[in-house]
Design goal:
single chain, 191 residues, 7 helices, 38% helix, disordered N terminus, globular, alpha/beta, five-stranded parallel β-sheet
Length: 191
């Protein structure tokens, strides 16, 4: 259910015996993106799957990736504590990969947050190096979409994300997998 103070959808079956799996949607999307994956994970025996919403009752667009990351970090921390601080896996699509990377960095930088551990981090079509489509759209929209501007190539956020994946997550022994498609023209494999 949604709440103004907690704009996240928490609909896991709360089986705290398992490590949590957190699914984070991307730009111009909603948690429904992962409904089929959640159903398949649950039918495979995973009962501790969380769908996370980046926006309250609407698709994620025009927001600030830093704001999304702050909220997601808090939600990951809550889920981790609720589950006895078991190692958490995060699967994120598109912009959700940037949001999740920054959230994981926030948690890694917190001195009082030694409890949150990550097992796996999977990004699917995430513009970790930015994307030329964001560059073009941002030029057309003249910077009116904050998150779109932040997904541009060479943005501060994409540089931070790549740096953290290459150093911070490696130091935490997190298994990282980036999935990109050869036919993806929005976020090419090189992104």
């Amino acid at each position: 259910s949604f709440d103004f103070l907690d704009p996240f959808c928490d609909n896991s079956s709360d089986d705290h015996r398992e490590n949590p799996i957190i699914l984070v949607h991307g730009y111009m999307s909603s948690p429904g993106t992962f409904n089929l994956m959640k159903k398949n994970l649950e039918s495979s025996g995973h009962r501790n799957v969380y769908l996370i919403s980046l926006e309250k009752n609407k698709i994620a667009a025009f927001g600030n990736i830093h704001t999304y990351a702050d909220l997601l970090a808090k939600r990951i921390e809550d889920i981790s504590q609720k589950n006895g601080n078991k190692p958490t896996s995060v699967v994120a699509h598109s912009m959700g990969g940037l949001v999740a990377t920054l959230a994981m960095r926030i948690l890694g930088d917190k001195k009082d947050n030694l409890e949150v551990k990550f097992n796996h981090f999977v990004t699917i079509g995430s513009p970790l190096n930015g994307t030329i489509i964001a560059d073009i759209a941002n030029f057309i929209l003249r910077g009116s979409d904050n998150s779109l501007e932040q997904m541009c190539r060479y943005s501060e956020i994409t540089k931070t994300a790549i740096s953290y994946i290459n150093t911070g997550l490696t130091l935490q022994n997190t298994n990282v997998l980036h999935i990109g498609g050869r036919e993806d023209f929005v976020v090419p494999q090189a992104s």
